[in-house]
Amino acid sequence: MQLNAILKNLKTTFVPGIIIPSLLFIVGTSVLSVLFPTQTEHYLSIVKNILFHNLNWLYVLVVTLFVFFLLFLFFSKYGNIKLGANDSKPEFSFFSWIAMLFAAGMGIGLMYFSVAEPISHYADPSVAGLSLEQRAKDAQLYTFFHWGIHAWAIYGVVGLSLGYFTYRYRLPLSLRSCFYPLLKDKINGRSGDVIDMFALCSTFFGITTTLGFGVMQLSAGLVHIGILPEASFTYQVIIVLVIMTISILSATSGVTKGVKYLSQLNIVGALLLLLFVLVFGPTTYLFGSLSEGVGYYINAFFNLTFNTHAYEPERQEWFFNWTILYWAWWISWSPYVGLFIAKISKGRTIREFIGAVLLIPTLFNFIWMSFFGNSAIWLDQQSNGAITAMIDQADLLLFKFFEYFPFSQAVSVFSLFIIFIFFVTSADSGIYVMNNISSNNATNSPKWQLSFWGAMLAIVSLVLLNAGGLQSLQTMTLITALPFAIIMLLFCYSLIKGLLIDSEYYDRPLSHSTHSWSGAFWKERLERIVSYHKKKDVNQYLAQTIKPAFEELKLAFEENGIIAELASSLQQSPYYVEIKIQHENMSDFIYGVKNQSKNVSDYLRNEDNAPDILDEQTYVPHTYFGDNRAGYDIQYFTKNEMISDVLKHYERFIALSSDQKNEIFLGQNLREDPTS
């Protein structure tokens, strides 16, 4: 392909298998949205409505699973595992870390919906029969629901999976890495390219539509305060060019500089604006409504989580247009936000990651939405519905809201500054993430690649804004959310599989055979360690070491008045040697050793500086017991050490038998055939 040849001649880290099909899909979709905006939106809306109306329960189910999956990991032993080596340290301070993940996650949305969403819920026709007080409480409740733990759980699943496999398994910071336990080295092939292509397109479309709609709010606000004469396309072009120029400069300076400092500036500005609304708004009412709202949310948590409004047909349309749309929107943004959160989270423990990602932004969102939303509802009640009358002008609603406060002009200008910085932080982190995906996490990407993605975002958003095709792009982004939700479920499965392997690796104790090592016969032991045995070798060990040891033990037991029996099979499968002491009133004492096969990993077999291993399987002598406890490898035991180990277990058996409370285990023979 000509594009492939161009990429090879350029100094680039782009991966052709990712960048070429992604660009073709992005350009093709954008062209359709520009040339046929009405028709494209019509057909895409049909698909979206089919998904929302018929599979809304699936959106609810997967988001619920994400919440409880992260809560399980938070409280489990896996919470202590670090995203990185056991001795790794966080790259960023806690404040910088929180500021960056917050700004990338949903910062601009807080400005746009802080007044618009609570007022929309409050004035929705489906709640017209409720009292004003109940409508206000429910408006706050559903705003909390849409911007709370559930939203951040979606981001958290992707971010945690990426962070774990990138820093713990030392894989590229790429969505394909999350499938490593399932696909192994196949992630480096075509399957991995397809996964990253999906993430790249989803990220591009999500940022493009947000940039386009956000520019409309910025231009409307600038017109409202008199800085611009009109909200024309010419002025929107200027706004986009300014935003993307600063975003490109920030992205090319690196995460530790531009992105970090702008995020910190953003969060400080947002806090100042929040304090202004609290001080000059109905302060006592706001504190009281926040406290009551959090309690209302906690009490209604499970009902909200599982509710599909199946018994409330009058609320179904609201449910599709708000809750399901939000879940789809958060899922569609999760590749971008998850990648960025993972990038800045190296060195954090899983418990620290989940706690911070779920709780801190959620708490801030609750405070923000409560103070802005309840102030707007309170002012609406005082002004006989003046704010709800503007519900169809969401771009201007925040600025009209500030007209009820002192210094309204200055506050509107300051809020525009915050919106502007939120846009820059979303765009620069998006540019960084898209370059990361398209280059498969290359560390030496040229700066022109970052500039390329900034230019692509600016051009596509402006072209679609001018042609009226942004809505089509947004609808398609929402449609792609459902298949990606299924991919996220596979992330969860893959993460659990990886954590189980991780835990077993670090928690695995030294071999039982090392407990009695004194240094004697160390050369013989080294020879056994670096030798991988065939079945006949283990059978020979059973015959020459284990069986004589058990025979000597049998005689010693009989000298002490205890009858012991020996059983063995050394000529045909199953191969084993066993000593047993039978009892009438309690279970038998059994200690056996069997010839057990064991798989050998390809990594060890293909390693030059390791023991020579020709076959995929080796064999070891493995113990088993009468009470079905897990056995272990005893291939290094001498005869005397074997006798000592049997006596340790017999002493344990006698000690347990003397305690009445253990009769449930000792009153019956539990053993299944361990040699099978």
TrEMBL record:
This is BCCT family transporter. The keyword Transmembrane helix applies. It is a multi-pass membrane protein. It is found in: Cell membrane. PROSITE patterns: BCCT (PS01303). The keyword Iron-sulfur does not apply. The chain crosses the membrane at residues 12-36, 56-74, 94-115, 144-167, 194-213, 233-255, 267-287, 319-341, 353-371, 407-427, 448-470, 476-496. It holds the Pfam family BCCT. It comes from Sphingobacterium oryzagri. Belongs to the BCCT transporter (TC 2.A.15) family. Keywords: Cell membrane, Membrane, Transmembrane, Transmembrane helix, Transport. NCBIfam families: bcct (TIGR00842).
